[in-house]
Amino acid sequence: MSSLPLALRPWAESLALFPEELALHLGPFVARLSAAMGAMRPRGEAEGGEPQGYDGITRRGSFDRLLVSEWLWALEAPDELVRRAAYGELSFLKPAFRQPQDARRTVVLLDAGPDQLGNPRIAHLALLIVMARRAHAAGAAFAWGVLQAPPERGTFSDVTPSVLLSWLAARDVEPPTAERLAAWHEALALGDAPAESWLVGSARLARLPGAEKLSRIEVAEVLAPGERKLMVDVRPASRAARSVVLDLPPPDDSIRLLRDPFQSRVAEPVSRSGLPNATTFNFSPDGLRVVRFHADGTASAMAIPDSSTFTVPRPRRMKPQPGQTMLAAGWRSHGGLLTLMEREDRYILHGALKRTPPPADAGGPRVQSGWWKPGYVPELPSAIPAPGRLFSWRDRHGEVVLLLTRTGGLFLVYQVAAEHRVELVALDHPVTAMAMVHDKLVYVRGGSSVSVGSQLERLRSGPLTPSHRGKPVYVMPPTEDKTLPLRTTLHVVGVDGSTSMMLESREAEAFFGYVPGVAVPRDSGLLAVRHGPAVWRLFLDGAVQEMAMPLSFKVVGVGGCHMAPGEAGLVVLGPDERALSWFGAKGLHLLARASAPVVHAEVRHNAPLLGWLTRTGEFVLMNLLDGRVVYRATEEGP
């Protein structure tokens, strides 16, 4: 912050939180509000504390603390000593006291209601910086919170980027109420000395019962044509009021201060990948890549950037040969891009497998008819409505590649090494969500409960049932009992075996997600399953959270949100197909508005990342924990 004006240098440490261009706008707010607030009054000797020597010289005190030099007047000029005592000209040692840090405190409650939305919050931001530094200089504790929030959520003691982002998201449509002020008054004991309590908001706060004994700071916009100013009235409970008029920053910088004041102004993270427009995408099972399918039938795998300044390596790309169709693609963390192609007479797998588990005999799967119950046969692999996903997973026999189609069919991709032939084995249907969690394959299935683990074991030791099509696709029997009731089940397939459990949910649509700080089952992580047409259930560790979701919204994932830290919720696409929002127990929060209708959106299952693809080909990745766009690409047409 070496470029700060000399008058702002005392605030360099606090302003260093912000990009330099914003610090230059916020600095005058901080300096002028600090002058209007003044320093905290020092504690007098009457306030006591543990004695700790002397701290300077004062004109008042007892004669046992009179300076030795003053006693000379008693010897040389007694009348002068009397005169100096009468006029308060004698010098005394000033005692010092050790005062506990929490013996004094400053409490600030900010109005986040409709009266203060918009530009007034810029003054709130500057006031938090002023109050924090002011309390620290006086050795006092500092606590602040949002007046509309319940006191049970506690207060903040720091002014850091993460905390301020949470505050910026804490907007409320309701004005502050007397009941909420009374709750804060009781929770924080605002009437007890030596607390200094401030209410920050509009003049409406003065009319709340209980506010008359508290200090107030009233913030309002100057209503005059062409004026961009704020009027701030500082009204301490025991001193005269002071008013300050502040010039607002330019509109663009004001918006940045209110949305994300900690992101430097850089060029929009827009790049042209040189690839044809993407038609859909998915996150790889390990969460390290984004696999995209393009209009020319190709597939590409792109590294996921950590921030908007991350240099993204050139995507790995696979293009089908003439006569081939891209059925599915995936990313193997130890082996790169993996693709499955279809020709008229065969399937083609690009990517050598690591010791595929052998079937019952080396000649390929044996065939026996009459096992699969009619109605359970999954739809055969197809690129319609969109290519599927390949999962590379290692069990105790070696690498297993699984294909999950967009219609919910789950297949084993089996490669006969001796004949260079690829065959598919139908394992399960319908599978609605699938992920890799702690090196285990986890998926949700609607219908009778038979796990992939048991199917793979039967594949290694038992006969298979062929499909009716020419290409080698085989169907595994789910069970010999053809009367199992339909139900939604969660399956966890590990190296040492598989487990399954029935989910208390009436429908099978599901999503896996991630929220830091929320206790979730270790085997499956955060899981959301549709329970009814407008009801979703979130499966947490030892608890099930149920929430109603309007039918006009489309759920695209589950995860956390920077506007509600420590809470799990649904990520949804609005009826306009542009608004992406987070829906939790405390309502709906807008995350972003796409530049065009969204054709596909997805949440990464093991990290707080949301991706969406628009009809115009724009592809965006956004961090859910801070609301920042980390990648944006517009792709060239073919």
TrEMBL record:
It comes from the Bacteria. This is Lipoprotein LpqB beta-propeller domain-containing protein.
